[in-house]
Amino acid sequence: MKRLSRRSFLQKSAASLAVAGLVGCGGRDQLDQVTSASQLRVLNWPDYINPDLFADSVPVRNVDYSDTWLDNYTGAEQFGPQWDIVTPTNWLAAQLIEAGQVQRLPIELIPNHKNIDPVFLTNEWDRGARFHMPWQAGITGIAYDPALTGRELTSVGDLFDPEFAGRVAMIGEMREAVGLAMLARGADPGRPTKTDAEAALQDLIAANESGQFYKDWVFDDFAALLSSGEVVASMAWSGDAVQLQQERPDLKFVIPDEGGVQWFDTMVIPTGAQNAQGAARWMEYFYDPEIAASNTEWVQYISPVLGVQEVLRGRGGVAAELASNPILFPDDETKRRLFIWGGLESTADEQDLDDRFAIMAGLA
């Protein structure tokens, strides 16, 4: 199985995303035409779909499938009606919806819309998921090597412990890094205020300047750094950690006591797409629990589709083991400790936070 890397970020400033440039003639209250065309055009992240499902079973036969969405910043430059389905991360999807660049789902053509896990139906930017259907989700927590830390790590504060100075890897994703730092302060990244987010960013800047963190801010590279022992602990993505543990079962992944940051990449239909009907068929297919379970077996991230755990459990063997994995299927108590970044009230304030984070992390 090919190891999934959630992101292969190009080291580019967050300033490259200019939301104002995304605004088009669409509107979130308009009634969108359910268009139909002979071809379905899908833009997704690399290694984010079970190739057997795509090659053999997907109901839309004429599909132009591209896995060139490498990151949200450069990916935004590709977004537009030349695609029928695109899968941005939740925070970018929220901005695109607000900008009128995403059209309403033809839910009447997607009966399996009812299978969306309710946790994804309560986002302020799209209550009831009228404009998006999540593709895969993950958790940002802490991965570490207990043989090198000499103790268990349970808190976000452990990433700031001077004992590990220079040996802690951090991921260059603003909303997740700031979100964890907010949790360490007792603040809620699901409802971030400018004051709380600013304080969290200053905590990160101070720690970074003191040499607390590894010399470079990374993305999926954290797995290699942990595996080699170059760092003892890291901010980490759950799916990459689950895959890494297949090679290094001694490494641990934990959701901090204060909570973890949950994110998801989600399917949207760009305003003006030529094949909204085909997009609906694609969404309907991948929200069948049997199909979604097969995709989960391959990508090993959290499925947003109800019923997947039961399907995997019924298949036995390795699939049943996945069904018992608390990282793939968090219990209710754990779910209450997961926070999806809610976005600052001001888009300009969030862009400013993004820009200064990128400078701090050496990504600008």
Written overview of the protein:
This protein has helices spanning 51-56, 72-75, 90-98, 146-149, 174-184, 194-209, 222-228, 238-247, 276-286, 289-299, 308-315, 317-323, 332-335, 347-360; strands spanning 40-43, 63-66, 85-86, 133-144, 168-169, 233-237, 252-254, 260-267, 338-340. The protein has 364 residues and is an alpha/beta fold. The chain folds into two domains: 35-137 and 263-327, 3-Layer(aba) Sandwich (D-Maltodextrin-Binding Protein, domain 2), CATH 3.40.190.10; 139-261 and 340-360, D-Maltodextrin-Binding Protein, domain 2. The strands form two sheets. Strands 4, 5, 6, 7, 8 and 9 form a six-stranded mixed beta sheet that branches. Strands 2-1-3 form a three-stranded parallel beta sheet. α5 (174-184) crosses α6, α6 runs parallel beside α14 and α10 packs across α11 (308-315). The longest helix is centred in the middle third of the chain and has 16 residues, at 194-209. It is globular. Mean pLDDT is 89; it is low at 1-29.
